[in-house]
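Journal club side-thread
Mid-discussion, someone asked how the predicted structure for our own chain would compare to the paper's figures. Pasting it here so we can look after the session.
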Amino acid sequence: RITNAVLPIMRNIGKGRIINIASLAGRVGVPGHSFYSATKFALEGYTETLAHELHPFRIKVSLIEPGFFKTNLAAHAPQADNPLPAYDPVRDQLTEHFQKGVQTGRNPADLAALVLKILRTKKPKLRYPIGQGALIIPFFKAVLPQRLFNRAVRLYFHLP
């Protein structure tokens, strides 16, 4: 909604910057977070498409893809109203992993500094991965056979 609100102004003046913040979960499906990953995958596609569409108007579009950061995200993550008992062991393992990742993640000030860097850059890139796993995990997804990558994801999250 904000993008749609500011685009007419940016097009009229012939320049602008749009910076969306997605997640590593927009590049790699995160077990136990299917809806979150789906929204972040959608934001990836939306931002990439905007970059193409807005190029003629000199509007620069970038996407930040953070891994874990030290925030209150784990404490405020929504819980299912009726969790299925069959998933309890996996859910517990994923919750523990998620909480540990947030506790050991980067300082949010690093993300704010990246936003400023993008705003000051004459020719910003489309994607800016930052934080724990944000560079290496998509790289492995790109170079490993899918079956091997899937196995690595399950091992990483200690899943069966």
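Post-session note: The chain has seven helices and three strands.
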